[in-house]
Amino acid sequence: MFDFVRKEALFAALDRGLPKKLKAAAPFHMKTTQDCIIYGFLEEAAGLDIAEIGGGNSRLLKAISAKNRCVNIEPFDGNDGGPAKAVDIAGVRNIQCLLGEDTTEIDDESFDIVFSISVVEHIGVNKLDAFFNDGLRILRPGGLWLHAIDSYLGDELDPHIHRRISIYRDWAKTPGKTEPVGEIFDGSTVFTADMASNPDDVMHTWGRVAPNLVEQRKKMQGVTAIVAARKVAA
User: Fold this and answer.
1) Residue 132: is its pLDDT beyond 90?
2) Which tens digit of pLDDT belongs to each residue from 43-63?
3) Where are the alpha helices (DSSP H) in the chain?
4) Burial bucket for residue 156 (CB in 10 Å: 0-12, 13-18, 19+)
C-alpha cells in the first residue's frame, strides 16, 4: 500500500486501545499515530526476524521483541535528534550502521520484516534509491517493507515534496522488486481534511528543536505517509 494515514485508520487504532498497549507518551502527537499504525502490521508477528531502521530507544521493538528476533539498525550518532550512544533494549540486538551505505555488517536476506518510523524523511532524495535497494537486499523474498514517513502537505502542491512522495509511492510497487500490501493512493499530494495530522501546539513546540521548519509548519500540516510492500521472490 501507499497512502497517508487517514483519521479513519487512526480512530480504529484508538478504539483498539493501541496507545495504551504501547505505553504511548503524553501529550498525543504524530509519533503516537505512527506507532499505532505500524504496530497494527506487527502485533501478530511471532517467530520472525525483524529489523527496525533508526529505532533509537525504540518503542515498538520493546513491544514485539518477546515473540520475535529483533534488531535495531541504528548508528547512535546523535544526528537528527537520535540518541548519541547505544541504547540497550531487552531481546534486541544493535547493529551500528546506516542502511544504504553498502554496509557489510548485515547479510543478504536476513529479515522477514524491515520497518522504520520517522526515519526516511531525513534521507536525502539522492540517497533514497540506495536506501531502498539496500533494504530489499537484507529482506527475504516475501518479506515486508514497511515505513511511516513524516511529510508536510499544504493547500497547494509543492514540487519538492511531490517528488519525494512519488518515490515513496514507487517503493510500494516496483516491477520485479515489490508488490503492495493493500491499495496505492495515486491522488494529489495536497492536504485534505480526512488526513490524521500533528496537533498545532506540538508543531509549535517542535519548532524550537528545528527552527528552520517553523515557516513551513505555519503553512502546512504534518502528516504521515505509509509504505507497505512485500519483496518479490526472484
Assistant:
1) yes
2) 999 999 999 999 999 999 999
3) 7-15, 18-21, 30-42, 59-64, 128-138, 159-172, 200-209, 214-219
4) exposed
Cα torsion 175, 178, 183, 185 to 10°: value is -70
Contact between 150 and 118 under an 8 Å Cβ cutoff? The reply is yes
3-class DSSP assignment, residue 60? helix
Contact assessment for residue 97 and residue 59, using Cβ atoms and an 8 Å cutoff:
no
pLDDT per position as a tens digit, 184-209: 999 999 999 999 999 999 999 988 88
How far apart, in whole angstroms, are the C-alpha atoms of residue 214 and residue 119?
20
Q: Which domains does the chain have, with CATH numbers?
A: 2-231 (3.40.50.150)
**Count, residues in the chain:** 234
Burial 67-106 (b: 16+ CB within 10 A, else e): bbbbbbbbbbeeeeebeeeebebeebebeeebbbeeeeeb
Helix/strand/coil for 15: helix
Is the CB of residue 136 less than 8 Å from the CB of residue 54?
no
